[in-house]
Design brief:
Number of helices: 16
Largest sheet: none
Distance between the termini: 76 Å
CATH superfamily of one domain: Protein prenylyltransferase
Radius of gyration: 37 Å
CATH class of one domain: Mainly Alpha
Helix content: 55-70%
Structural class: mainly alpha
CATH topology of one domain: Serine Threonine Protein Phosphatase 5, Tetratricopeptide repeat
Length: 401
């Protein structure tokens, strides 16, 4: 075989493969050629204005911003140091109140400053014991400085305008209103005090209503509203009407739905025979609430706030059915009606998981053999609609075997 003459490529009529230009011979490994120089005649693509602004932002501009904020930072640090020093020295006076007010107007999140103000008010409102020896002193006739609670309300109003969700500002306002209301109620024989208390609470109610009109999801304002209404003695029927008005304005208002769950048993519930138990909701009241929830989730099936309220209604229906005199017939009719509504909505919105999940829950409440089969089918369907919770649905199916 070694003696045979090797057939050339030309004789075999086979075209050789292309040889890289950098290779000196066919058998030598080709070297990687260096990258070619960029053609300067071709202009690069234009940059976006945003990218240009970011790239052109020079360190001098950042330095200028830091230098512009430096006086404010120095002022805040000086005020904080002064407030802490005065609190340690128990300097409960007008100067301390002015220092903390200036600090909180700039930064409402300084808890120590709010605590110092409350300590100062509580201390100065309690007059020191009188001494007969000091009665001859002309300076003793000068009334001592007592901070005004109206100033505290004005200060918290400023800080809440700066940050409507400031925890310490809301806490301090509640503390101030509680103290002012208690002071007005202390002298119940004085008609002016009773009038001032009602005026104060009416003003606070008007303020929080305006805040909720601007931002109906501010849970600080919702909590403060409950606090004010508790002092005013607002009825459950009034709360129910307010919740309905906020829900009609925005179906996706979790706080309004939650308020409805708290006010509905008090306003429409029927007392139970056993004392201390929560009132039962009549079937006609529950039917009206189911209709309200259906209007909400048929309007926006992906909004879960109405579905959460519907879940609460299902639980209340099942619990109240145990003490009903009809043997649970009204509850079974309600569950059947809601199951039909969920099937209809699932056909209309095949990509929505909420009607399918609610249908599975209703089937569990019904408990019949046919309902259990539909429950398993719903759980299997949820594995595709909600893949992030597929394991949960699989476990639910396994537990039904």
């Amino acid at each position: 075989m070694h003696g045979r003459k090797r057939q050339t490529l030309e004789e075999a009529n086979v075209r050789p493969p292309p040889v890289p230009s950098s290779a000196s011979s066919v058998g030598r490994r080709a070297r990687v050629s260096p990258p070619r120089a960029r053609d300067r005649s071709v202009s690069p693509p234009p940059r976006s204005p945003t990218r240009s602004r970011v790239l052109n932002a020079s360190p001098s501009r950042s330095q200028a911003r830091r230098e512009a904020a430096l006086p404010k930072v120095k002022l805040i640090r000086a005020l904080q140091d002064d407030a802490i020093r005065r609190r340690a020295a128990r300097a409960y006076d007008a100067t301390s109140m002015a220092v903390t007010a200036r600090l909180l107007e700039i930064n409402p999140e300084v808890f120590t400053a709010w605590n110092f103000r409350r300590e100062t008010i509580a201390t100065l409102e309690t007059p020191p014991p009188s001494d007969s020896a000091d009665s001859a002193d002309p300076e003793a006739s000068v009334p001592p400085y007592v901070p005004s609670l109206e100033d505290e309300l004005a200060l918290t109003e400023k800080t809440l305008r700066k940050n409507p969700k400031s925890y310490p500002s809301w806490h301090h306002r509640k503390w101030t209103v509680s103290r002012a209301a208690a002071r007005a109620s202390h002298d119940a024989s004085d008609s002016d005090s009773a009038t001032s208390k009602e005026t104060l609470l009416a003003r606070e109610s008007k303020l929080v209503t305006a805040l909720l009109d601007l931002d109906d999801r501010n849970f600080h304002a919702w909590g403060y509203r409950r606090f004010v209404n508790a002092l005013r003695g607002t009825t459950a029927e009034e709360e129910l009407e307010y919740a309905a008005r906020k829900i009609r304005a925005n179906f996706s208002n979790y706080s309004a739905w939650h308020l409805r769950t708290a006010a509905l048993p008090l306003a429409r519930g029927v007392p139970r025979e056993a004392p201390g138990e929560e009132r039962a909701l009549p079937s006609e009241v529950l039917d009206e609430e189911y209709e309200l929830a259906r209007q909400a989730f048929f309007t926006e099936p992906e909004d879960q706030s109405a579905w959460m309220y519907h879940r609460w209604l299902v639980a209340r229906t099942a619990r109240d059915a145990a003490g009903a005199g009809d043997g649970g017939e009204a509850a079974r009719e309600a569950f059947a009606r809601e199951m039909r509504a969920c099937r209809e909505l699932a056909e209309m919105e095949p990509e929505s998981k909420w009607p399918v999940a609610t249908l599975a829950r209703l089937c569990a409440e019904v408990g019949t053999e046919e309902a259990e089969r539909e429950r398993v089918e719903s759980l299997r369907r949820l594995e595709g609609l909600d893949p992030m919770r597929r394991g949960y649905y699989c476990d639910c199916c396994e537990s039904l075997r």
